[in-house]
Protein 1
Amino acid sequence: MLTIKRLAEYVGVTVRAVRHYHQTGLLPEPERDSSGYRRYDAQAIVDLIRIKTMAEAGTPLPRIQELMTADPAHFAEAVAEIDAALERQIDELRQRRTRLADLVGGDRLFLPAEIADYLQQLRELGVSERGVRMERDGWIMLTANYPDTALEWIALKREQLADPAFREFYLTYDRAYDWRPDDPRLDALADVMAERLRQEARATGVETARMTIQETVSKDEQALLATHVSEYSPAWIRLNELLRQRVSA
Amino acid sequence: MLTIKRLAEYVGVTVRAVRHYHQTGLLPEPERDSSGYRRYDAQAIVDLIRIKTMAEAGTPLPRIQELMTADPAHFAEAVAEIDAALERQIDELRQRRTRLADLVGGDRLFLPAEIADYLQQLRELGVSERGVRMERDGWIMLTANYPDTALEWIALKREQLADPAFREFYLTYDRAYDWRPDDPRLDALADVMAERLRQEARATGVETARMTIQETVSKDEQALLATHVSEYSPAWIRLNELLRQRVSA
DNA sequence: TCGAAGGTTGACGCTGGGTCAAGGTCCAGC
DNA sequence: GCTGGACCTTGACCCAGCGTCAACCTTCGA
């Protein structure tokens, strides 16, 4: 006959757990000796090991209680289910490991692969961290609100980025952030931007698919840009003014 | 800008969880709009996904909070730790699957392999379920109290079981359980048992190793047998009497 | 204009025990 | 025979990480 501590130690659970199982009726209370101590027999060991094994496998205690009195066929069936659940858990843990890997370094956790690739291209191009982060945040919001549209649009952006002239322009625009608002280069940049806008307008006039996208997005784009207007530098604000002059003209 | 539900849905957590993170300070409370609704930006999505990823990997929320403001080097180190923990969890789940398999059919979960094998041999020999269970319970208690001794003793038992004459005797003894106490076959059985005891006494007189084991165990054996005396049948009680007559003689 | 859907705070509930507190018992060594 | 330390008893509160009401306010599409 065993005391509660010997039982718990042999099976590998805590004394508190055993008492908890008694309280909930999962493990029957054993006889007491003359001093009121619980005295356990071999069946208690068998029961407790079964309980422990199933509990460790994630089975809720009430479910274990059901199974302790189930016939062998039902029991085997339930164990098979528990085993399948364990297998699923293992698969999930594996997936979590891969996602965890994306935590350190990379936007792959927050964005579809295409967009994360695009951001990576920007970095490799030499775009500032600030610039990349503004892009990233914009794409995140866009993806959260219109995932399909975001994917269509990113395809266009990556096409653009294949053009060396556009890359040149993008870099300049990125650097202009830190210029002084009276920097004369801003005028030249505004010229380039206006020309690009005009070309794009002609292109979208022809290609209806792109037109649709532009229309769908334009409202949100406004909203997205507005989100970050507070982060605009004096140079960019000035650039906006210059641009508006040229476009409205 | 997102409402709490859109945020939660996009990231894949519940609204309640987001609010919980706000309460504990894990995720900063965002600005409210004019009606008091929370409005989330892209950074909230990034933060929440990081939180979710680490939380799913089993990281306690306070620990996550520490890591959210940690520098990249410390963060990467911590993520490596979390990943290692995940790996250990996967290994443990695998082990639990194997132990779970022993739950259905078999005593391997409760007893060392040698003893489980011995019980299996008894079953194959044709010993009654009751008999096997009495043996099992005895071995469990013995193993719980004196694991080393149990292993030494089981070796002897398995040797005995290799002897066809002993197997024959064991089976008869097992079946005698259900005989009537005045069954004349009990006398013959008592003769055989007495003879066996005498032989064993001579053997243990020679082999000191076995002697030691017998001595060590004898007290506990008494206790163990006493445990199950209540389960003795009338025939077995009678057999005990007959045996005592012959041995004391 | 109205009802459904979504937002707000606040409070209690749940699992599976951990961790005191305040005693009563057992046993080994002196 | 006594004492100290390990063990037993019940009872109570505490924890994470949310789930789940309740009671009320706001927004939005038909």
Protein 2
Amino acid sequence: MLTIQKKEQRVGLKPLPNVKGKVVMRFAPNPNGPLSLGHSRGVSILAEYWRMYATDGPMGHAAGSELLLRFDDTDPQVKPPLMDAARGWNGYEMIRSDFKWLTGKDPSRVVVASDRIKIYQDAARDLIRVGGAYVCNCDAETFKALKDAKTPCPHRDQTIEHNLAGFDGMCNGTTKKGAAVLRVKTDIQHPHPGLRDWTAFRVVATDAIHPRETLGQIPRHHAWPLLDFQSAIEDHLQGVTHVIRGKDLMDSTRKQTFLYKHMGWTYPETLYWGRVSVHEFGKFSTSMMRRAIEAGKFSGWDDPRLPCLAALRRRGYSAGAVRAFWVNLGLTEKDIAVSLTNLDAEDAKANEPGAHRLFFVPDPQLLHIDGVAGKVAKPLRNPNRPDAGHRTLTAEPHLVVAKDDLAPRLRLKDLGNIEQAGGHGKFTDDVMDRSLAIVQWLPKSLALPFTVLKPHFETDAEAAAAGDDGPEDEPLAPGAKPELEVPPLLEITGLVEPSVTTEVGKVVQLERFGFVRVESPERGVWLHT
RNA sequence: GCUCCGUUAGUCUAGUGGCCAAGGAUUUAGGCCUUUCAAGCCUGCGGCACGGGUUCGAAUCCCGUACGGAGCACCA
């Protein structure tokens, strides 16, 4: 008997392919700066699978799941790790705390690649012994020309002994930068030029000293592995079963597959996500942000205008909302352009139920109102949760309301109706009249000065009005480095009710203004409307 | 130039030959509710890039075109 079943909507991420036993994954950032919103896609997706395949997760089984944090810090010269004691910056520590904030957990294991250079060098020797790699003495231009012509270079057929000796020279410092690299043999005729005999190891410049070498945390190394080699070896060593990474690394998978074949290993299952651009933040990179901060254009990695997790955390975004945002987008190879609007909607769901309401009066105007003194307003801390209690505001003759709210007749929220002209007026009644604007107000003597820092990102309408089609890719002058756009940071000043002092560190909703994270009794940072 | 990936409403996504006259989220318009222009509830607008083919039947399979993106580093 055949039964037709209605297709069921799948919620959340697709199941991982080819799961047998424990699921082991890794998040592998370069610690050249803290994590950004872009990195958080990877962490969020990986953390979701980590949860799904945990022993007690929805897809779980006894073997469980692991998510490793691996610092891919094998570049002492171009993108060295961020370690600036004077500024208190440490990429490793910043990423560990970003990871913990976002996932709520510590990683299953932490691997620091620069601790393990000797292991990679030994792995390279193993690869040479099986005939999978050779030491190439061509300079970069020469090799490129040969490679583009699908022609093997003269070093490709050297003996294993010769290669081993050459590699020793690279490791012990007798071979200088540029004089030799170790290449993995692939297929010099391969149709894809990027896959032909790729570089596994290079000798770094004598003055390119890794920050951890300077600090004596690791011994001095001359020959450092490139990402594709280090990552491939480490994935095998750590028993990684599933690699999930950006689509830009598709060719890495193909390169590394050659290496795995030489070694007789099985390559992990690999999934990709497409390129993401976030409308509000434009084009950015960790190094661009670092330069801009060092130049004083931003106050730090947590400047509210920056796409760093530190900045989102400071503004009050819930980590769960950031994760939900990415999990909802799913894992697709399509390149996407998203707006922060979706994150804000997700965050509102997370923050709104717990956020206390506060009266905030921007651009305050003083009113002298007869007949209000002593009247008491008891607005709820959260109208959707009466059990959260209320604040108490006692009116006095001098009140403030926002300049934009000024009108001949007004309803002071939770207090009553007034009429005024030129700043003087009187209390009329407290009969509910929905035709009046209901405005926030404060007793002058109790109101506290409050400033909200609000990043101003260009909206589509503004961009259209300004007549530009987004960031233009003008060719940079030789040697020039791309600069980060610096959006304005507005400082909105006003008065807030005294109970702000009990909200420090929390997200509040300033009624009819927006959600703000209170940093101190005097200052808040804009979250969203 | 060579190689690879992608294309469902404004945005993101579900969908792997009939259950799809395409579902969800967000955005947006309107309404309800409400002592916030928040939240909540209801309703509406809006989409399978294009052209061929296979098939009784295609968003789904094949071919081509267009458009978008990535890689071709002694960076990650």
